[in-house]
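Structure tokens please, single chain.
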Amino acid sequence: MTDSSTIEKKRSKVEGIKERSNFLREPVATELKQDTTHFSEDGIQILKFHGSYQQDNRDNRVKGQEKDYQFMLRTRNPGGFIPPQLYLALEQLSEEYGNHTLRVTTRQGYQIHGILKKNLKTVIKTIVQNMGSTLGACGDLNRNVMAPPAPYKNRLDYQYAWEYADKIADLLAPQSGAYYEIWLDGEKAITAEEAPEVKAARQKGKNGTNFEDSPEPIYGTQYMPRKFKCSVTVPGDNSIDIYTHDLSLVVITNKKGELQGFNVLAGGGLGRTHRKEETFARSADEIGYVKKDDVFDLVKAVVATQRDYGDRTNRRHSRMKYLINDWGVERFKTKLQEYFGKKLESFKKLPKWKYEDYLGWHEQGDGKLFLGISVENGRVKNDGQFQLKTALKEVITKYELPTRLSANHNIILYEINPQWQEDINQVFRNNGVELDPDNVNHLTRYSMACPALPTCGLATTESERILPSIIDRIDTLLAKLGMAEETFVIRMTGCPNGCARPYMAELGFVGSAPNVYQMWLGGCPNQTRLARTYQEKLNIAELEQFLEPLFVYFRDSKKKNETFGDFCNRVGFDALREYAQTYQPNNQKTMKKGEKKPRAKRNEHRISVNEEWYQKLKTIAGEEKKAMNQIVAEALEAYFTK
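Here you go.
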């Protein structure tokens, strides 16, 4: 057994900060009372558990002056549920204390940006008093539990997904009183009563899942090694990117629609670091099936396995995906079953997954309607003739409508009486908001970007602010190539942490340096396959030059109904690079329907090599992410010019 002093030396700095925090109280409680604009480094780490990141507006940096410190607050809303009272409170807070916008996150919550330290307590207190919370929206614990946003009242499986997203969120919520002591002066929030079975499951301490006599029976003083993400969905509905979570549950019902249990997936996660090959995006594995009466014990067992065996020395290696990758699924299941106390049953067969965005008008199954609204990059704002913020406030105030946020950062209004439909349509029309999904730009509809600059401290380049112009450029290129109707999933982040999940996209942009992106290809429309790195660095000024040969190759060689991501995955990156290297642009024109597509001109100079050299060239090309003929050309050029 390793002695405690050795363990202490190996632990990361953040582990010590958590342990000294007195269950998330310090130094936040003390520093909040200080007349300063920002928190210390230790305070920043603990503040995350309370749902806030300290940021500074890099656009406002002036040499020799203090940074423009401000805070981002993130709400925790299982299943994306936002009651009307909470939305209106958030809207008002963003006007009084924020930057006048709200940001729908890719995990079905809201973010308010631009809050000053002196106003943090007022804002958090107001959120809690209006049926909301920020507790656990960030930090080393379970984050917001996701579920499909579709409010089908005639589908019991969707109702179960919502119910268990709520219950798992309650089960894994921090139990320390620090949050209410600091932000509400000890006043307990007025919230829905916790289900008795959830409370009982949390207190049950069998097989080493709990810390006895601790304010945090599941987390202890150290909480989790890193963030932990969960989701609950129904068979076939992949509106929540099921393969990207630490733990996902799939509702399994019988023919009568009655809940029987859950399929279990684990080990997904997308965060990585450039030039650190030991960090990588990973999709979740199928783990097994659990009966409904055992699901809370199973969730605790998964958490305990990661809590006790996740890496606490290297935070880049601390997510559960690395534990499962290092151990393998079978070893992970063996340890999981020790905490669980029984064997898992076999994973149940499921239908194919399909991405759904639920935009436009729909019947919710009980005579009422719901409305899905596309929100470009999740930014709820007023901008010129586009007055989304005004329209939402008017409709939600007038009809007291609840909303659900989607994982693609869109908004769903529901519980709408049919007689309200025309009035609601008119309100949004008057405010320049498009409600017909067929009129939403075909690329924008399936795109996502993280906030990135100027506020995110990790961003190395632009994302949200630049993606609309990138989509315009791609649209123009597609039209030039006679591909105006083509659509695919585009996602962009300003750093490799992957908040907008670019590693599942058909075309992923991952910020590498100012105006430079790593390019990922080969994901699929239904988000069931990881993309792969195609090019390490692309200056965004060269976007059209980069994309045109790929699009032409796709246009001229795809199979019927094949998508861009599926095509890239099928033909392989060697073929893509070979084609791009020899591609000669034609004077392309916008093509009419039925017009024959010209093939790309290619140079047919070929050189034969033996099999041994061919394999060596292929290996080098893969390592350097270049076409094989480019490697040969560089070698010949070096030979003839030496």
